[in-house]
């Protein structure tokens, strides 16, 4: 089987779709927990349990997302190297292919850690305050 530029671009976008699915799962879980904790006043032990569960989930999500990001970086670097070395690629596609870039894995890891911290703090306070309360007199 010959490996082509088309295969590399397909692999890149398939990996990107997988990574986006994991990011979406992360957001759904985070906001579901926020909504649950914010719906009513919650006992401190339940708040702590939800935060611990979220942090454990977040770490496992971070591992998968960072592996996928490393894969994206490798594939995008390969595409760039191939495009720069090949004279067979039409000019109108060359610039488009050279713009396929990925953020460094470290940036994704830092963003994920900051997001998890911020969401954990929000969960802590959401569990202490009934944000959906209709009681405006107190």
Structure notes:
- The mean pLDDT is about 85.
- The chain has four helices and no strands.
- It is rod-shaped, with a radius of gyration of 21 Å.
- Helix content is about 80%, strand content about 0%.
- With about 140 residues, it is an all-alpha fold.
- The longest helix is centred in the middle third of the chain and has 42 residues, at about 45-85.
What secondary-structure arrangement, pairings included, does this model have?
Elements: H1 5-39, H2 44-85, H3 91-98, H4 105-128
Helix pairs in contact: 1-2, 1-4, 2-4
Short description:
Helices cover 79% and strands 0% of the residues. The protein has four helices and no strands.
Compute the gyration radius: what is it? 21 Å
Low-confidence stretches: none
Global geometry: rod-shaped
Mean pLDDT: 87
Features:
138 residues; rod-shaped; 79% helix; single chain; mainly alpha
